[in-house]
Amino acid sequence: MIGPDTAGIAERLGVAADTATAIGQLAAETGLDVDAAYAVQTALIQRRLDRGERLVGLKMGLTSKAKMAQVGVDEVIWGRLTDTMRVPDGGSVDPAAFIHPRAEPEVAFLLDRLPEPGEPVGDFTDAVRAVAPAIELIDSRYANFTFSLPDVVADNASAAAFVIGPWSPVPDGVENLGVVLEVDGRVAEVGSTAAILGDPRRALDEGIRLAGRHGVRLREGWVFLAGAATAAVPLRPGAHVRAVVEKLGTASLRASA
Fold first, then answer.
1. 35 φ/ψ angles, rounded to the nearest 5 degrees
2. What pLDDT, on the 0 to 100 scale, is given for residue 1?
3. What span, in angstroms and rounded, lies between the C-alpha atoms of 103 and 86?
4. How far is Cα 45 from Cα 52, in angstroms, rounded to an integer?
5. What is the rounded end-to-end Cα distance, in angstroms, of the chain?
6. CB-based contacts of 111: which residues, under 8 Å, 6+ apart?
7. What are phi and psi of 248, to 5 degrees?
């Protein structure tokens, strides 16, 4: 049996992202399952690398129980980050460059060495150099931000852009730090790092395990986005978005009008 056209699906997703044009879901049409979807993701990222971008880290998705239940799965997903996705802290993005961007507050880790799959969380601080508040912009390439699990995996877990705030040593209690997402100075969402698999350090362990299944090993110096601590909010033209994480500080971005 001939499998899904990995290169063709990746091209369709890549063009959708490049032109900020939504497309219909692909999995049902193409017979894509999750394993094949990660192959599409690899081809999609290779498309970016071929034009000069470089890998700088990984991101997690579906790290809250609510999001898992919403799509009917019990396992998180992961995607890849490239250098062109990074926005300076306090920098600006053009919403017109995306289809329907949404912002969510996260915790970012900076890897100091290569963690081993299944390494105990207790050894976490030996593998992580620093932690920072972060904002991720997610932007599904599918119409109405609606997709199946293979669809979102193929679409690089909806990765679009990210902002990293100031790095600092990993504080005590990182498993339950208060998180606030502000839009134009007003509180839009309130949560806790506990929403990230109960402890964002577990997201790192899951990322190592899941990426390793597909031959991807995290690298020293990479950024790791552990997952959203609250629901995402739409990024409107002219909006100023700020993530505040207890003990870690803030990260922000502005959408051009």
1. -60, -45
2. 45
3. 14
4. 11
5. 50
6. 127, 128, 129, 218, 219, 220, 221, 222, 223, 224
7. -110, -25
